[in-house]
Protein 1
Amino acid sequence: MSEHPTDFSLVTAVLPNSSAARITPKLLERSGANMLTWKARGTLLQDHWFKRWLPPISPIKSMLQMLVPNAEAGRVVSSVVEDARLHQQATGAVFSTPCQNTFFGNASKPWPMREGAELSKSGHDLSENLTAIFCIVGPRLSDRVAKAAIRAGAHGPLVYYSEGRGLRDRLGWLRITKENEKEVLMVLTEESQADDLFATMANAGELHLPGRGFMYRLKINRGLFNLPSRITPHHYDANMQQIIHAIDHLNGHKHWRDQAVFEVGGGRGVGFEAPKNTTKLVDQVCLSTFAPRDDCQVVMDCLLDNGAPGLSMSLARYTANSGANLGQARVSGEFGMLRCITDEVTAARLRDAVAQEKDTAEFERMCLFTNAVPMVATYVPGAKDYREASPLAEAS
Amino acid sequence: MANLMDNPRYKLGFGDTLRIVWPYVKRNFMNQVEGIWFIVTYLIVFQLLVLQLPIVYASMIAVGIFIVALGLMFFMEGLRLGLMPLGEEIGSVLPKNSRMPVILVFAFLLGAGATFAEPAIAVLKAAGSGVKATDAPLLYSLLNDFSGQLVSSVGVGVGFAVMLGVLRFFFAWPLKYMAMPAVAMLLGISFYFYQIPVLNDVLGLAWDCGAVTTGPVTVPLVLALGIGVCRVVSSGSGGGGHSGFGIVTLASLFPILAVLLLSLYHYNADDYWGAENYEGDVTVATAAPLEDEKPQMEKALEPISMIEFGAYLQDGQLPSDYELEFRGGEAQLVDGKIELANPEVVIQKLYKREFTVTGGESWDSSTPLADQLWQSLTDALRAIIPLCLFLYIVLRMVLKQRLAQPGDVGIGVTFALVGMALFGLGIALGLTPLGGQLGSNVPVAFAEILPWGLDHVEGPLFDGHWGKFAAIGFAFFLGYGATLAEPALNALGDTVERITVGAFRKKLLMQSVALGVAVGIAAGVLKMAYNLPLFWMLAPSYSLVLVLTFFAPHSFVNFSWDSAGVTTGPITVPLVLAMGLGVGANVPGVSDGFGILALASVGPILTVLTVGLYTQHAQRNERNEETEESESPNPTEAVGA
């Protein structure tokens, strides 16, 4: 295993199942290309007067992820935009996240470089000032955080499952006491609104209390999102979202939203509360590891032994161009994503530890990369009494 | 590299261990209490307040219910840690490491084996305890002479169902197009049976077989297997073939077919009781005495005192509330009137609702605790160990794969075992006596019966049809509450929520299934109370199900048909059967308690499909906006032009 010379980007697409199934073969037509498919759900609030008190509706979505060389990322993103018709309302989202220090196991194949000819080009402009907010909370909290995010102006968050690993795994047989599943909420937003949205979600989830959850932000290179947030009654001629999007199209940018709408209440961002009591962490990076499901345990042990604070593990289906068939179905593998947020020193140590094990069978098909994390919110034990207020500050 | 799982990093003292375990135990225990509080409260309130009858064995029942919650807690954790990961592991390894014939043989063996591990024949025997050979000879023979064949044919049916269910994943056959023809065929055969009296008796048994075959161990295992397979298998096209559900559905349809065919065979071979080729040694004498065991049907009437009698003789003044009865005499129809010749006229004072309680015992001493515990422990061992052993051997020997987390699975299987044993004990101590009392007391609403623990007969509390309606209303809530506590349904709910990543909540599924079962059981009691033909209750409801299935989205078809298979489990069955038999015993012409469970399986299909159609409708709003947008010209281009 060695650090790959080229820079990679993680391209993520959020689509309804039907269009995900349509796009997958197109993206995988070249041999060696592979992707991970995650099951996820969207969130929709209902605006009917009596349905407001019902739990949000959750349409099933798929999340596709590919690790693509930087040079290709733009083309892959715009091809997804074109094929999934992402310029239309409520269709989905696609974005690419820049990755640093990408490692590949001996047997894992990076996404092949190719001539861009086969990929459809898109005439639609991609936004470049986006950011992704991830919030990991228990299943009981996720609805509250999702509602708060939508009310603060975000789209309906995408939710997928992950398993918190690390702490309780060290407790021997007591590991059975860990909670089943955590839910990861992902929200895409304009960078200018990200701080306020981040604070709103952190407050809604009460992340300053111990054991509540973890939030972080990742930078996005470029992307486009058109995710729905609400179901409005029939008698609205055009809903607010449609009007805003029409104005976006007319202006050619989204900056007008800041100036025109959000300055009404005095400060920018009407209705945003000041963040309270959240512990700040500086110089954090997000270290992600992909490994086949069967090898995850060994990789996880290696990371935890070398000082990873805790991992969130989620499972996805691995689809590659080549694959075995049984009946009429394709037999594919499963990959796990192990992700932890830690400081740069620890991350470097973890990378070295993984590099040392590179010849082990379990590490052959894995890959590892890091992303810069500009902001984190969680409860940090011992750092401070959590009941005391301490303002959340931007890191780096 | 040190393995974290084997070498715990932190050494914990007793206090710390307790501090970690306690919230875990509390959380899981309260989850179970949440499931069973409704049914327990409801049963007690109904017995004490509505029927105004005492609860016999009260403290035994209280202890039993506590044990049920404890057992459920262990069992559900056992499913999560042990049985379901084991099933999933096998499911996900099978397609990678083996060829199609191996997979199919494995699936068949699993299905058939699960049926023998959790035999439903005891339940069926209980339901058919009142069957008289003279009334329903074929049914009687099936339950007694051919009970071995009955279990085997159900086992074979389930085996084929699991096989076909797994095959379905590989070819992405939508469940819709498998279940609909199967049900249509079953209805067709049932219609044929309906027209022949001897075969008609068997219908209830056959349809119930489908409902009871899938028990609390089989369902989670089979679900997990399907999910494991679908984790690695994909065919690109949608169609709902790959959600991992559907095996349970087929496993509840095929046994019906198997039992129908078995009875058809015996019908044609003429070797059932009373037919030409009958070889059994059961004589009518064993079945007949049931006739005489009716409780003495005399009310504890207030005798008319000598003083009142003297008053009557003097001025013909009757006591304030009295009843006039004509006994004997010869009735004749004369000019459209009934004329009684020489009747004996009896005047009685009306019955007053005052009684003394004789059965004030708080603990049933007839069955020792140790025996009960031993019984439930052996049942649990038989239900869990052979299946797990079979799965483990297949994993190690055939697939040559090691368990990912053997420690967790070991703990899980132990938990499941302990849980199952406690659960069985709790049911025997708590729920069965409570449900049995109440079930047999319910007919007091419309008939005269001898309730538990009283020295004389009671009832009817309501006049005419109202009493029967009261019993039906009781059945509705009983079905609702019992279903919420069912462990197999809880496991299904968890799985559905996990597979859809929370898009379909467990709570929504549980509530809609419980409502469906409630409707189904109420319909079943209606059938018993008025002795309606089962076919005419099954045919319309299943036809409606077929129509809804046709329109519903694929994923909902899978959940709803699967939830029908899991509804009838160890909590519902004893409660419902006790009540069904109690009601049936007081309605002339009803000999068995069959049919209620079959109807209880139709209900949830209907309700979950309805929820599915509603959700589809609600999400259409989103899609409407999408299409409107795509049809309208792009605003930027409009400006440019």
Note: The beta strands of chain B are 233-234, 322-327, 330-334, 337-341, 344-349.
Protein 2
Amino acid sequence: MRPVNAACHNTFDRGIAAYSTVLVYQLCLLFQWGRVVSEGKFEDFVVLVRQSGLPYDDVDLERLFDGYLKLQGMISTMKRPANLTTGLAVDFQPEPVR
Amino acid sequence: MTPLTIAEASRKLTAKAVSPVELTRYCLDKIEALNPKIAAFITVTEERALADARAAEERMMRNERRTPLDGIPIAHKDIFETAGILTTAHSRILKDNIPASDATVVRHLADAGTVMLGKLATLEFALAGPSFDLPWPPARNPWNPEYFTAGSSSGTAAAVASGMILGGTGTDTGGSIRGPAAMCGISGIKPTFGRCSRTGVIPLAHSLDHIGPMAWTAEDCSFLLQEMAGFDRSDRVSANVPVPDFSAHIGKSLRGLRVGIIGHFHENDNPVSAETAAAILNCIEILRSGGAEIGEVKLSSLAEYSAANRIIMNAEAAAYHEQTLKSRFLDFGERMRHRLLLASFLTSSDYIQAQRRRRELCDEFACVMEKFDVLVTAASASEAPLMEEVTFWDGLEKPSFTLPWNLTGYPAIVVCMGFGPKGLPLSVQIGGRPFAEATLFQMATHLEASTPWRQRRPLI
């Protein structure tokens, strides 16, 4: 297993974590996180995991990254929906008040 | 005594040729002998089973059997809540969880007179596995314990195939009834979305979760579904529709029924083994010679259906487990915590787009089903894999044949159609129109009666 904390500290050492909150936010808006990381940079993914606020003790980050790429690949196989303007994604009808 | 189907056992009970207590003791003996090897059961409720059996025997002696299931030994996947009985979801997180009440479906089956033998293995929270770092081992395939059962209703499939139970409950969010049923050579149906109440069943993904029966034959599944189905106001998606006689069409001619073959699913989108392809062709020929009209169907690719389903499933699962993931991360098994962590990186946009795409795919399905009564494709690409060959990200690597029916909510059943070179079962999948489960039982029973495969049991 890749030593998680060491990898993260190295990442920090190289300054990747120097993204400011504002810059990260702007990147999220522009590209969405997944699309940025899916370019294939493990170091970016490590930053994503650290900043997610989720626990990752005892997690094999390389294995997780492998899954992440598979997930992104799967998402990319789905066609963009044709109709983005009308209708709700999930059926919902208000019910009369009893 | 050899393993009986529910139909056979029910006839014997009505004729008083066997007693519910004898039947229950036979199953308990099987469990004692085989469970150390197959690991289908997490909890065996022997006292409860014998009490249920004695009560059923009294009714039988008074000629007051409640239903064809009265006195029939069954068990529940361990994500169905059972009052006063451990319900773990096969997870350390719930290792001491004793619910106060029964799930609606558990109650329905108890009211029908069934004998409850216990709780069955699953994947952790019906999502991740096989796992060897949990308090209980994964279930193994009775046809060869070195092989996987598929998941997540793995314990139910293994217990039915090995004769430990005559039937049981399963849940299906992406194929968790049909996959294990196919790998273990039994019958399993995912009914229409909303047909069976999910109240009291630990969710995986609320917009895709279905409850259904598993048994040796399709007819047996029809008996179980008869008692499991019905409107339940406590489940917001429960369908307020009549429950028909699910076995009403069994034995009737297939003449006039229109069968669509989704060839591109199993020929191009996820090419199946030569043996599975032959099993599908055999299935088509039997249906054709039975009077059905056969046509070809073209849908969007299996990968599209799979992607939409898996995005929704993973996002909803991550939402359900969000708090526990943060507070008890290391109490999850390795596969489960990796899976949930990964799912947490899906964006809201991913989820919304998948739901929108789902609507479009549902429209496509509805359009095709105006022309056909049922659709046929593979249930799996080949025989079961070796347990050790199941990859870590198994669920993300290839499109699955079962996912389109979860996405659309339409019913689908699997039928054993032979055995492969490893001696493991091969199955086909038949999907139907919403709330037309009776047609699936008719088709599946016709296939079972036209082939010798229901006569073959695992040699364990």
Note: Chain A is about 55% helix and 0% strand.
